[in-house]
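Please, structure for the following, as tokens.
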Amino acid sequence: MEILFYHLTESKVDDALPALLERSIERNWRVTVQTTTQERCEALDTHLWTFRPDSFLPHGMDKDPHADRQPILLTSGAANQNKSGVRFVIDGAEPPELQDYDRVVFMFDGHDDDQVQSARSQWKRLKGQGHTLSYWQQNHDGRWEKKA
């Protein structure tokens, strides 16, 4: 399993996440995006339909019919309804058990102390369990640089 921490310093998750989801779809990966509340899922759902006029990110929410068929599933819960291999954990959400995933990405806002503390806690817990972790931070151009 690959576990990555993406430290947002130049943009917000709503700006950075769509490009990562597009890359995941290009690779034919099924994805779950976990956030903290159902209201946040609904806001993210709207954003993913409208973030760029020329884009299309096929996705749905965990409460929708046929959630299990969605290539990208938005949730505030722990289930892996769409049998995804990739899970994005955003907004400081508490992740489920991770053994079902090939890749887990923790994205956190570097300007939000609660999210930074949550990411540090997750890093320490997962490192203590013997997982190999990588840490990526945005540079001034918004590109990702591997720091650890």
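Residues 68 and 83 are 7 Å apart (CA to CA). The two ends are 17 Å apart (CA to CA).
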